[in-house]
Design goal:
Strand content: 25-35%
Radius of gyration: 14 Å
Number of strands: 5
Mean pLDDT: 82
Order of helices and strands: EEHHEEEH
Shape: globular
Length: 126
């Protein structure tokens, strides 16, 4: 099993593109794996997802503490631990050092990561 890298540092938002209303993105942009996995998604749908994640994160940008997921990176072959993030460029931050051949092993790793960091699943904001 591989260990997760340090949690992404807090970065400041970059200006959204001109035109219509979109959620901002944090500096840094997606990794090559994130670009490969999420590159074909509809930008308008990703923006809507990011708005929901922004609300879930108590109206803050960036990774959501305790919100870990397992993402299939190669259909039927590879799964990676990720963290939901209120960032239109990176709605899921993938931990490339935590990639597995089995989805159950990836799920256990995500749960262990949350426990090691002392985080709980996100609570609904009111």
């Amino acid at each position: 099993m591989r260990r997760a890298s340090a949690q992404p540092s807090a970065a400041k938002p970059v200006a959204p593109p001109t035109g219509k209303h979109v959620m901002p993105a944090l500096e840094g942009g997606p990794s090559s794996l994130e670009s490969t996995v999420f590159g074909d998604l509809d930008p308008d749908r990703v923006n809507q997802l990011t708005e929901c994640l922004f609300t879930l994160n108590n109206r803050r940008f960036g990774p959501i503490p305790g919100a870990y997921v397992v993402v299939c990176t190669q259909p039927g072959a590879r799964w990676c631990v990720g963290q939901l993030s209120a960032d239109r460029a990176r709605p899921v931050v993938l931990y490339e050092t935590m990639e597995y051949d089995d989805p159950v092993a990836a799920q256990r790793a995500a749960e262990r990561l949350r426990e090691e960091r002392g985080e709980r699943p996100p609570a609904r904001s009111l």
